[in-house]
Specification:
Helix content: over 70%
CATH topology of the largest domain: Tetracycline Repressor, domain 2
Largest sheet: none
Number of strands: 0
CATH superfamily of the largest domain: Tetracycline Repressor, domain 2
Shape: elongated
Structural class: mainly alpha
Order of helices and strands: HHHHHHHHH
């Protein structure tokens, strides 16, 4: 397939064909990730599945790490919940997203690999940092909103709150190798809310 221009002749608006090819490639890459794991997400595999030429893929994503970053970003945007303003429900719903990801084998393997390789491979370290920042973004927003509404202790550090909420799930699944249910998530949220209720 021939390469498409990234911009219109006037240098302004992005060519619609570029948007379509990028969307098709990301959809194919996301399907490969969920079916076969991160190792299977390659330019060749994405080109075969999407019909987008490899030249076009390499222009969008010069290397596999760049491709994986955008695939994971898109998957997280799909998975993330939309906060409703009901603190307990919002915390529970967002942690349920994480529970689902941790119990989905391809995504679980991706997380394990990022953690394992990050200390010795800078590219994987960047990807792990991206996973942490994007993965915890909505949970942090929910906590900050709860503090602003006076439903959580004003002295609570949102970043530590994210650790207290997400940390047990990640530890239990990735380190202890145990599964856990929705009940575990609900109990975790209730314990967190009791510990950080507003104080005079």
């Amino acid at each position: 397939m021939a390469s498409e221009p990234a911009h219109s002749p006037d240098g302004g608006t992005v060519d619609p064909r570029v948007l379509r090819s990028r969307a098709a490639a990301l959809a194919a890459a996301r399907a490969i990730l969920l079916e076969d794991g991160w190792e299977a997400v390659t330019h060749v595999a994405v080109a075969t599945r999407s019909g987008v030429g490899r030249t076009t893929l390499y222009r969008h994503w010069p290397d596999t790490i760049a491709l994986l970053r955008d695939v994971l970003r898109e998957q997280m945007e799909i998975d993330h919940t939309v906060p409703t303003g009901v603190l307990r429900d919002d915390l529970t719903s967002e942690l349920e997203v994480l529970r689902g990801q941790l119990h989905r084998p391809p995504l679980e393997r991706t997380m394990r690999t990022m953690i394992e390789r990050a200390p010795t491979h800078p590219a994987y370290g960047e990807l792990k940092e991206f996973l942490y920042q994007e993965g915890s973004r909505v949970l942090g927003e929910i906590v900050r909103s709860g503090i602003a509404r006076g439903e959580l202790d004003a002295r609570l550090d949102p970043s530590r709150a994210v650790d207290q909420l997400a940390g047990p799930l990640i530890y239990r699944r990735l380190l202890a190798g145990q599964t856990f249910t929705t009940t575990y998530v609900h109990d975790l949220v209730d314990d967190f809310l009791r510990a950080h209720r507003p104080r005079p």
